[in-house]
Amino acid sequence: MRGARPEQALEQAVERGDAIRRGDRVTIACSGGPDSVALAAALHALAKPMYLTLRLAHVNHGVRASAWQDECVVLRVAATFGLPCDTIGLPPGPHDEATLREARYAALFASAAGAGSNVVATAHHAEDQSETVLLALFRGAGQDGIAGMRSRRVLAPEVELARPLLRVPSAELIAYCQARALPYAIDPTNADASLRRNAVREALEALRPLFPGLDSAVARAAGIAEDEREGGRRAGLRRAVRDRLAVERDLRDVDFEHVEAAVRALEAGGSGSFHMKPGVRIEIERGAIARVVDDT
């Protein structure tokens, strides 16, 4: 994040995304880690302009001795922003990842429904999305798996699950907390390489120096797969742009962001000239592709 107020970049990313909508009544799942603390702070900053009603919910699985420290951090964050907070202790039970996740979401749904929230917001970020997509590929998943985590989906009747940070790197969330002097806890289980997700995380850390755009690329692929799965208008427009380029020019070296700029113009019914690659541009007139121009 750059600029005199780097924290604004995170708030703008949340506001411009489609995960959190104006007027939402949001229960923020806050573990006490930097990701969920940053999410709580960003949503608090956006509460007035977006007409949001906010509260925190903290689920204590009771599987490690330091869990009470996380709860203290969450209570401190709630007090800092003047937000109500529901702390939920789960009964002893199996400690495998799937069981814990199921119990956590059930508790969050019950908390949100009891408070009249229509959304549970979690702080899954770009690296989480990369790990999810790779784990799905390793299991042999198809298009649904490649789409990764959805930015918003139904969690249970009348309550949706929102993930507004899926395109935000974890380093930016830590920087946001530090810029605002917010407390956060570190989960020691993140270093346990015997857990499959942590093993994938460790492998990705080794790859990122060689592929600096790794998480952005995975997030784009997941977004495209989700659009294609839902069969929405954007997926059709994206195919139209790429098909027109494929017919008239070579698709190689065409940057994804250039295609998306043209797609956004088509969605908005706009006009303009959009650079695809050196010497090649698409002319759009009133929301339709007029021509592909080769200036080479």
Task: Tell me the layout of helices and strands.
Elements: H1 7-16, E1 25-29, H2 34-50, E2 53-60, H3 67-81, E3 85-89, H4 97-115, E4 119-121, H5 126-138, H6 143-146, E5 152-156, E6 159-162, H7 170-179, H8 196-207, H9 214-230, H10 233-248, H11 256-268, E7 272-277, E8 280-285, E9 288-294
Parallel strand pairs: 1-2, 1-4, 2-3, 4-6
Antiparallel strand pairs: 5-6, 7-8, 8-9
Helix pairs in contact: 1-2, 2-7, 5-8, 5-9, 9-10, 10-11
Structure characteristics:
single chain, 296 residues, alpha/beta, Rossmann fold, 6-stranded mixed β-sheet, 3-stranded antiparallel β-sheet, 11 helices, 9 strands, 17% strand
Care to give the gist of this entry?
With 296 residues, the chain is of the alpha/beta class.
What would you say this structure looks like, in words?
The two termini are 36 Å apart. The longest helix is centred in the middle third of the chain and has 19 residues, at 97-115. This protein has 2 domains: 7-207, HUPs (Rossmann fold, 3-Layer(aba) Sandwich), CATH 3.40.50.620; 231-294, no CATH class. The model has no long low-confidence stretch (mean pLDDT 88). It is globular, with a radius of gyration of 21 Å. The protein has 11 helices and 9 strands. It has helices at 7-16, 34-50, 67-81, 97-115, 126-138, 143-146, 170-179, 196-207, 214-230, 233-248, 256-268, and strands at 25-29, 53-60, 85-89, 119-121, 152-156, 159-162, 272-277, 280-285, 288-294. Helix content is 49%, strand content 17%. It is of the alpha/beta class and 296 residues long. The chain has a 6-stranded mixed beta sheet with strand order 3-2-1-4-6-5, sandwiched between helices. It has a 3-stranded antiparallel beta sheet with strand order 7-8-9, covered by helices on one side.
